[in-house]
């Protein structure tokens, strides 16, 4: 397989990255908001796109998971299929560039729609990451709320338990938000508060269509923040942001981090 070449940033994009870097350097609060486009650059499929997970499996809604053994088995079959794309995924240059902003003291927080744990793997501590849709590397009991590792749950499944349960008898489920499941109140509230206090809000790899996560850039704009969007496809905020970059996240974020450093 031919090695993928890193895109050469055009002078126009470099002018935009210079502007973003200058805004970051002068800001008191910088929020980076990430979506599936960050994960795809690490080789993780975009499950909503054609040929993705939702073409292979019918989504299992939360109520069905809680009420049906058959639905729970289907859910875990889907999760095991997901692991094919997750198990070897590593932070890409975009993740590492955001981590550099943290290391230099310029990052207030990451708000992410992603569930892969790659921001933590890049070196950003948990307390600086707000996971709006949870984290699939953790598994939670729906009854006693105990957390176990994904590896522990996977061993249960490989041993023949198609829909594993906790020692308390409760249903085990990856610690992510399923269709029909309520968003995490604490994380959603904190994300909104930080968005409203931000001076710079950078969207990376998100189409900003999934609510309520997609409200965060609007909160930032309403509070007077500088909004930059780095995404390959259109978003509802394209005509409201100050900088719009249609390019892969990795090279753009690397250029921004280098200018800030």
Automatic annotation (TrEMBL):
Residues 10-261 form the Deacetylase sirtuin-type domain. CDD domains: SIR2-fam (cd01407). Its EC number is 2.3.1.286. The keyword Zinc applies. Gene3D superfamilies: SIR2/SIRT2 'Small Domain (3.30.1600.10), TPP-binding domain (3.40.50.1220). Zn(2+) binds at residues 141, 144, 166, 168. The active site is at residue 133. It is an enzyme of class 2 (transferase). It holds the Pfam family SIR2. InterPro entries: DHS-like_NAD/FAD-binding_dom, NAD-dep_sirtuin_deacylases, Sirtuin, Sirtuin_cat_small_dom_sf, Ssirtuin_cat_dom. GO terms for molecular function: histone deacetylase activity, NAD-dependent; metal ion binding; NAD+ binding. PROSITE patterns: SIRTUIN (PS50305). The keyword Cell wall biogenesis/degradation does not apply. Keywords: Metal-binding, NAD, Transferase, Zinc. PANTHER family: NAD-DEPENDENT PROTEIN DEACYLASE SIRTUIN-5, MITOCHONDRIAL-RELATED. This is protein acetyllysine N-acetyltransferase. It comes from Desulfotignum phosphitoxidans DSM 13687.
